[in-house]
Design goal:
Elements lengths: L6 H23 L4 H8 L3 H29 L1 H21 L3 H16 L2 H11 L4 H30 L4 H4 L2 H11 L16 H20 L7 H24 L13 H30 L5 H6 L2 H21 L2 H17 L9 H4 L1 H24 L6 H21 L1 H5 L5 H25 L5 H5 L13
Helix pairs in contact: 1-6, 1-7, 1-9, 2-3, 3-4, 3-5, 3-6, 3-10, 3-18, 4-5, 4-6, 4-9, 6-18, 7-14, 7-17, 10-11, 10-18, 12-17, 12-18, 12-20, 14-17, 15-17, 15-20
């Protein structure tokens, strides 16, 4: 079988990219708008943390529910619902007159975002087989990961020349394009056999994460309320433990624990936890420090990551193809180590700020490592699960990634020492490097390369989903 895609397969990739693009873009484009939001609506570091984490709480908690819904009701239907909901929530965020309403709208936006990524990736896996699948995932990774990195640049230009509110309204354009392309898609709706939804588990996960994040963000400034915050943290942990217990006994778990019997799936998700915690922490702190510490405009702060964007877009599809042939382990080991070096290079940032010598080397190195890592990581996770469970496998991995970022940003005040000044910036660089090294070690020890037959065999159940011209 050749690596060429049919017309309908290219359409699937385009829809999947646009659907995931808005969710990834929104999770990063907001970073450079945080200072402007705080100036207009009030608040300090806590306000900035909540602007990001209100979105990540619901996204991370409900992405499992969305994955189950994708398998139960169909990938195209769930994707369409997510697109429409995300567009409406984005308008509500842009129109919010107070920080409280903005945070509430961001939470709703996270709910809709949870329905986008799992159904997008599951649509690819349900309609393609190797080696086309690995190449498609590489293209998807290049463009959606590029969205995560180009977000700060786009957001900076918008903040400097219009208003931070337009940062959220730009979502409407790619959503409209995706909805239009869906009308041209000629593919039977794909569903998992016998898939059901655990609503009780979704409630336990959402409440547990919400309480835990609330406590982590507010504890550094807790004062007399600290005992109640510690109680909230304990309650959140207990709810999450209850969620895991429920997943062991329910007939329709949101988090099928048997997926983790696959060594690659388990190790890949643990590596994801470390890697995406580092990426989220780094993106947040760099965007804020370059404006508040180094005195750059929002546009220049966004431009700082442009070298990373170029490298990710240029290399991810090629590396995805290589990974499909030789296996993901070496890429998932080397990539995080290269990214760790990039984070340590940020220690060059000093009181006399110079982007070209203090930041640019870090951005280039980080981009190279990110390009090496992300497509093989995605392919390893999806390849370790059967095709009929593609939606939930993708959802679990994306939930791990979003929860990793959620917890890292919630703990930011403790990591940075209460302020994103130069000392806090350096402490964060050390922390992100350590997280990335941990991800590399987990990948080296835990990820297994598939055999040649596994890498090239057609997807089970792909007969109705495989497209032709």
């Amino acid at each position: 079988m050749t690596g060429r895609m049919t017309t309908q397969q290219r359409l699937v990739v385009a829809i999947a990219v646009l659907g995931s693009f808005v969710a990834f873009l929104d999770s990063t484009v907001v970073n450079v708008a945080l200072s402007a939001i705080a100036r207009e609506l009030g608040g300090g570091l806590s306000t900035q943390q909540w602007t990001v984490d209100a979105y990540l709480v619901t996204l991370g908690a409900l992405i499992l529910l969305a994955g189950a819904a994708s398998d139960a009701y169909g990938r195209v239907l769930v994707l369409r619902i997510g697109l429409i909901g995300f567009a409406l929530a984005s308008v509500a965020v842009a129109a919010a007159p107070t920080i409280e309403l903005l945070v509430a709208a961001r939470a709703v936006q996270g709910v809709a975002g949870a329905f986008l990524v799992p159904s997008s990736l599951a649509l690819i896996t349900a309609t393609m087989q190797e080696p086309v699948r690995s190449r498609a995932i590489g293209v998807w990774t290049a463009l959606t990961t590029g969205a995560m990195i180009v977000g700060p640049l786009l957001g900076g230009i918008i903040v400097d020349h219009t208003s931070w509110r337009w940062v959220f309204l730009i979502n409407v354009l790619p959503i409209g394009a995706a909805l239009g392309l869906l009308t041209r898609l000629d593919v039977p709706e794909s569903r998992g056999t016998g898939a059901r939804i655990d609503w009780g588990g979704a409630a336990l996960c959402t409440l547990g994460l919400g309480l835990g994040v609330f406590a982590l963000i507010e504890l550094p400034n807790g004062g007399p309320a600290a005992p109640w915050l510690w109680a909230a943290l304990a309650g959140g942990i207990l709810l999450l433990v209850g969620f895991v217990v429920r997943q062991r006994i329910t007939d329709a778990p949101l988090l099928p624990l048997d997926l983790f019997r696959s060594r690659t799936f388990a190790a890949g998700n643990l590596a994801t936890l470390f890697i995406y915690a580092a990426l989220s922490l780094n993106g947040f702190v760099v965007a804020v420090y370059l404006q508040q510490g180094a005195g750059l405009s929002a546009t220049l702060a966004g431009l700082a990551g442009l070298p990373t964007t170029i490298l990710v877009i240029a290399l991810s599809a090629r590396i995805g193809s290589w990974s499909g042939r030789v296996g993901p382990r070496v890429f998932m080991t080397v990539g995080p180590l290269v990214m760790a070096i990039g984070c340590l290079l940020l220690l060059l940032v000093g009181a006399d700020f110079d982007y070209w010598w203090q930041v640019l080397p870090a951005m280039i190195t980080l981009g190279l490592g990110l390009a090496i890592t992300v497509a093989p990581l995605t392919a390893a996770i999806l390849g370790s699960a059967s095709p009929e469970r593609a939606g939930i496998a993708s959802a679990v991995n994306n939930a791990v990634a979003r929860v990793a970022g959620l917890l890292a940003i919630a703990a930011l005040a403790a990591i940075a020492g209460g302020a994103i000044d130069l000392a806090g910036f350096h402490r964060t660089a050390w922390t992100t490097a350590a997280l990335l090294v941990a991800g590399a070690i987990v990948s080296a020890l835990g990820v297994r390369n598939p055999g040649r037959s596994a890498a090239t065999a057609p997807l089970a159940g792909a007969g109705t989903g495989t497209l032709s011209d």
